[in-house]
Input
Amino acid sequence: MAGGEALISNVSDTARWVATYRAMETAREDALFRDPLAERLAGERGYAMVAAASRMMRDGWPVVTRTTIIDDLIATALAEGCDRVLNLAAGLDTRPYRLELPADFVWVEADLPALTAEKEAALADEKPRCALIRRGVDLADPAASAKFLDWALGSLGPENGTATKALVLTEGLLMYLEEDTVRTIAAALSRPQIRWWVMDVTMEMPRMRSNSMFENAPLRFEPHNGIAYFEELGWHAREIEHLLVHARKLHRAPWYLRPFTYLPQPDPRKPGRSPWSGIVRFERGSGSELAVL
Ligand SMILES: C[S@@+](CC[C@H](N)C(=O)[O-])C[C@H]1O[C@@H](n2cnc3c(N)ncnc32)[C@H](O)[C@@H]1O
Output
């Protein structure tokens, strides 16, 4: 960057990086989703990050696949009666502007205050498809996080009641947190109003760790026992999507990784030294009706 400024100067800059992949997908004729606001939100800096990313990440297949899977999981939860979405660390995500959502559906976004203010200003002239509310909050601060959840699950206006079947999304967040913080968040989310927790589980961080671009947004959390980590905290895996296998089905897996998708895949509960990355919809309450897709 001009003046020697780091491409990623803090963790919030990673939001530009992933928004760029959504913009790149949107520009394809065969796009899996269309996110027309992504290009503007990503800005030149986002594209510079993509250019500096490792070969494995440069075409963005993990982000594109993750976005597509999560779009589908949200649609499934809506069909199952989900009455609110809390997108924690929403970054520059624009789902409330592009998904088919009822106009009175309540969608709450949280992210660090500076990023939230920037997004609010950038999208001031855009109209979301549902009732969208944003809050700046440091989710690593347990008191602030608990206060935010109390508010976000409550009655947010005269026209809506409290949430009874909320879905919480932490997409691209947990890896940047300390393990203690992840545990605290998992406990804070254990509330009767929250039914589902959708997240990406990533156990392939050495590649990203070795890229100096991330030195100001260090990668910290990686669950040693995969999704079992969250099951031990009381969350039952409802759907488990293996990222690379799903990418192949979507015609987004790079050619040099495709052969691996036909091999037996590691157990997401005991990945051992094999890398496993996927998207999981966890559920609280009723026992696990597990579907490995
Ligand atoms: C890789 S981006 C993902 C953004 C978005 N979920 C997406 O997938 O496009 C990581 C996001 O986590 C947010 N974040 C990191 N630590 C946070 C914290 N302690 N509290 C709130 N947000 C945080 C960053 O600001 C950034 O927007």
